Amino acid sequence: MASRGSSQEESNTSERKWKDADLSHNTLHEPKRAQGVTDNSGLPINGGVDKPQQIALGAEQYTVGWICAIHPEYVSAQAVLDNTHEAPEFRHDQDNNNYTLGSIGKHHVVIATLPSGEYGLVSAASVARDMLRSFPNVKIGLMVGLGGGAPSDRHDIRLGDVVVSVPGEGEGGVMQYDYGRTIQHQAFQQISHLNKPPAFGNAIDEMINDLLQKARRLRKLYSRPAQSTDQLYNTSDTHAHNDITSCTEECGDPISRPQRTEDDDNPAIHYGLIASANQLMKDAITRDKLATEKGVLCFEMEAAGLMNHFPCLVIRGICDYSDTHKNKDWQGYAALAAAIYAQQLLYEIPPAKVRAEGRISDMILKLKEWLNPPDYSIDYEKAKELRHTNTNTWILEADFFQRWSSVRSHIYSHGTLVIA
C-alpha cells in the first residue's frame, strides 16, 4: 500500500484529517441510523449522499466480498453503494470485522476493512477469513484501494490511474515479490505466483465528479488534485527521510512528460501484474527493475495475503510512484477511482453469472482436502475387505524382499498391497 511510511504522529494527524471529511457508516457493530442525517459528531452518513436503506437481508444473500485496507478506501467503497442494508441477525462468534452492507446494481455487497493501524498480508488474510465465516455464500472477491505506480516506457502510468490485476506474459495477476531474494550485486529471483483474476475496464473521471457533486463533504480530500502535483522524479533523485520540505525545493527537476489530451482516458485503466509484499515500496531502483524484468505495474501490501485464501480481483488507484517522494495528496481521488471502477464492474456482471460461480469458502475447503495427507489406514481397511486369501505370499519368499527385510529400509508401493 502506498504512503504508509510516515511517523506515528503524522499517521494519527492524517487519520483525523480524513475522518473530518468522512462519513459514519452503518456496520454490524453499530445501530441503524435514519437516512439523510448526521451522527453525533455532525459527520454525514453514506459518503454525504442520501441513500435508501433496506431491511436486513440474510447473510447467505451476500455474494460479493469487498475488502479495503485504510480509511480513504473504506469511505470510497461506501460512497459507491446504491443503498445500504441493516446488519443481519447472525454473526459468527469468531468474526472480529466491522462491515458495511449494501447493494450495487443487483448484487448484495459486504464491505470490510482492516483494523486501524494494521497493514500487510496477514491482516488482509485474517479479515477475509472472518468475512467468509459470517458470509459463507460470497462468490466474488474484490480487493480495492490504493497502490504505488511503476511507470515505464511501456506503461504511461500517472497519479489517479487505476491498475487491475490480470495475468499476462506467463504471470499471475499478483506477484508476492518478497518471496524472492534480494541480494546486493546479485539478480533478483522471484519464486511465487498466485491466482489469476478476470479482466474488465471503464473510464471513470466523470463518475467521480458526479459523485462529488452529491457528496460535498468529500470534495476537499477526494477531488482530483491539480495536475501540477503529479510529478515523477528521476530514479536517482531521492527525498531525504523525514524531510518535510517539498520535492520542488529539494529534489531537482521532475521528468518531463506530455500532458494527456481530451481524447485520452484520464484516469487511464491499466491491466497487468501487481506486486505485493509486507513492506512498503519506497525504492525507485527496485521499482524500475521489477517493472522492466517482470512487467509490474504497481505495488501494494495486501493482495498476496488474499489470493490463495480469498481469490479476488485486485483494483488499485495510483496515489504515488513507489519512491521516496510519497505524499497523501492523491489518496482520496485515487481511492474513489478504484472504487468506481469496482462499481462499474459489478454493474456489468449479470447476477446469474455470479450465482453460477462456486462459493469461495467451498473452493478453499476443496483445496484443503486436496492438500491434506491421505489416510492410508482407510485404504488398507478397504483393501482387506477385497482381498483374496492365499495370494501375494510369494513376495515374502522373493530374494528382493529377503534382502530388504534384512536391513533397516522402507518400501514404497503405488496403491495398497495386501498379503493374505
TrEMBL record:
Residue ranges the record marks as coiled coil: none
Feature: compositional bias, Basic and acidic residues: 13-24
GO terms (BP aspect): nucleoside metabolic process
Biased composition (Polar residues): 1-11
Single GO MF descriptor: catalytic activity
Protein origin, superkingdom: Eukaryota
InterPro entries: NLR-like, Nucleoside_phosphorylase_d, Nucleoside_phosphorylase_sf
Domain (Nucleoside phosphorylase): residue spans on this chain: 78-327
Positions of the UniProt region annotated as Disordered: 1-24, 243-267
Protein name stated in the entry: Nucleoside phosphorylase domain-containing protein
